[in-house]
Amino acid sequence: MSGTWPPPVLAPDRTVPRPVYCITGDVHNDRSIAEAVRDGRFTHIGITLCLGTEPDWRSADLPPDDEWRIEWRKFYYGLDLANAFVETGDADFVHAWERLVGSWIRQVPVDSDTTDVAARRVQNWTYAWSMFASSPHFTGLAGGLDVALLDSIGQHVRHIRRGLTPEVFRNHRVLEVYALFVVALAFPVLDEAPELLAFCVSELRRALAEGFRPDGVHRENSTHYHLVALRSFLGARENARRFSLELPDDFDTLLERACEFALHSHRPDGVICALSDADNGSYPEVLRLAGSLLGRSDFRYAATGGAAGSPPAVRMASFPDAGYFFQRSGWGHDGRSYSDERFLVFDCGPLGDGGHGHYDLLNVEIYAYGRPLLVDPGRYTYAEDGENLRRWFKGTAAHNTVCVDDMDQTPYRRGRPVGRVATGVFLGRRSVTGLDVLAGRAESPCYDAIHTRQVSFVDDEYWVVEDELNATNEHRYDLRWHLPAEDWGATELTTIDGKPAVRTPGVLLVFLSPVSLTLEPGWVSPRYGVRLRAPVISAATTATDVRLTTLIVPLRPSPARPRKEAP
For strand 371-374 and strand 546-554, is the pairing parallel, antiparallel, or unpaired? Predict the structure, then answer.
């Protein structure tokens, strides 16, 4: 047991949190989750357990994937409980939170979790407590929990401060520092020096400057973790505004640069492309707040799907340091709906610092007419148990690129690589009216074949992808195209003018080079711990040198057939 129980008594007025802005307040505002947690049911990574509202935090029988335990102990569901209480005034939601938090404090030493998990927990405790206190129905926490909770939060601060993640580029460090920032604002009694708040401001600015590449992309090169980190910086910026706190002069400049990538990495359906340990999440609250704080009406336009603000000026965006390049037919004007625009992202950059990088050089993701056409399957899991689907989702064969001799571009490791890794070189972009061409090259330490890919976006309508592979030895080259889960059972192998082709409800793929075409089962993971069966197209050939050309034509949705009335 860390600390004492019961903790020393503090003056009651010192245990009331000052109201802080919570950027995830609307994200965690699900009444069904609140009602389930009120009844002691918890769902994480697609698995529901009934553990009660005073669970055995240390010895409960939990799923083998440790991410379940980690998410459970972060207390995000406390925000759902707090929102439900604010909306209904039902004290049962407060009492459930009191029992959960109180039982955790009684049972678990503060230093039992890594600092990034402890930071998320103390941040969510602070957010939820502040939300509860904002309701006119709130009469205070029962049984002296306010004193116990403040004591525990203080212990959390000391634990996190002592064990801060050392690498400034890690999203874990950003989350840790931001949690300390929120606590310092909400509970000035814990920062009487004051010193904690000044430390957090300095470290947040440093993380913005050093944790992102010069083009504004987070150094881990994951769309998911870029948005998660950016959300904390924007939360800090809004809280600084509300508390009249001065930030460094270049804070907004650095922040705006990171927001540019957030803008372009959202597809026309408002979902981010799932690159390097990413889920198919959506972050309109990030773009909306960025638009308000930075005076950018184009951020607001993207956040609302074109309903407010003004369209961005750039369609063909390039982020050369991270190696991400975008093609977009438009932003939903000139008679075309926002969600129907054509979209492609091309990955031709470094693996990314840390362990989130997938072996996906020259990968693309394509979207058109309101639906994804070719997808990155996502991350699914960090666990290696059973059939080790961590390896499948991270591997080269799980991406829209060419797999050589069934090998990964970089030798597999669950986390960050050791030894030599595959390298990508961007060969340039050429744009003229009606044509945008991207080109890149990939080299692997695992084989001698060099892969060059050219992606041509023609008339803002369709794509031609040319893959050239050159080697001194013969190899089996497997060009992989991953289709969305909704195409399972609706994918047809066919021929067009004698050429092998694939037709789905959303796209036509025509292979202009001789290949052996097969349809394989694969997976798509829309969020961590959830996987859906999805079709994979394999276009394979054996050669020393080869050029593979694929015509990719989006298909307009067929009009729904009128329903016949029953006789």
Answer: unpaired
